[in-house]
Write a structure and sequence with these properties.
Elements: E1 2-5, E2 17-20, H1 23-29, E3 38-41, E4 60-64, H2 70-82, E5 87-90, H3 100-106, E6 114-117, H4 121-130, E7 134-138, E8 155-159, H5 168-173, E9 176-178, H6 192-203
Parallel strand pairs: 1-2, 4-5, 4-8, 5-6, 7-8, 7-9
Antiparallel strand pairs: 1-3
Helix pairs in contact: 2-3, 2-6
Length: 206
């Protein structure tokens, strides 16, 4: 990894190669209007776009099915990292986790957990369930409250498309269907990133 910066050398990056750029050079490679004056050149994880799980997947995994807004995907990655999720599975129809807007929304956390983006995500779900993971699906018509998310030792939390929610195929595989109680006479639903943040937080309470 190489750290690019403008101004004074940043502290805390001594183990990486550093390269000083002019403000004009930084602006030419930055996708933001106002750059923070620091960027990194990294190799993308080679197994991101494969259909193989890590040998040790960790205790909590986030599954995103066809979430298309890169801001939502990036926010969910950042939230999952903040609450110590080990990995994220995304469908091919999800926004690319390494697209510029998604990376910006992750606030630098995208490499802090393993990521798989694949069309055969249901196979990964089956594999995780064989490893004793509980698949919890968020569902507007679910009958169970989100407090049960703190119970499983191994959890896969599934969030669906902004408009359509989770597919029937995934709902049929789920061990439980979780619904967040809200004042539905005033608001029909929550943004998927907000719903995910609530569920991710509740699942971290042991």
């Amino acid at each position: 990894m190489e750290i690019l910066y403008t101004g004074d050398p940043p502290s805390g990056y001594g183990r990486y190669a550093l390269r000083c750029l002019t403000p004009a050079q930084m602006k030419s490679i930055s996708s933001t209007v106002i750059s923070q004056g620091i960027a990194a050149v990294v190799h993308l994880p080679a197994d991101t776009y494969t259909n193989s799980l890590p040998v040790e997947a960790g205790s909590r995994v986030l599954l995103l099915e066809d979430i298309q807004d890169p801001g939502n995907v990036g926010t969910l990655i950042r939230t999952a990292v903040a609450f110590d999720y080990s990995g994220i599975i995304l469908t091919e129809k999800c926004a690319d986790p390494f697209s510029p807007k998604c990376i910006q929304s992750t606030a630098g956390t995208a490499l802090s957990l393993w990521i798989r983006r694949t069309a055969t995500y249901l196979d990964l779900v089956d594999e995780l369930r064989k490893r004793a993971y509980i698949l919890a699906a968020t569902d507007l018509h679910g009958q169970q409250g989100p407090s049960l998310l703190k119970e499983p030792d191994r959890l896969v939390l599934a969030l669906g498309n902004e408009a359509a929610g989770l597919s029937d195929a995934l709902l049929k595989k789920s061990d439980c269907r979780v619904r967040i109680p809200i004042a539905r006479t005033k608001a029909e639903s929550l943004n998927v990133a907000v719903c995910g943040a609530i569920c991710i937080y509740l699942s971290s309470l042991k």
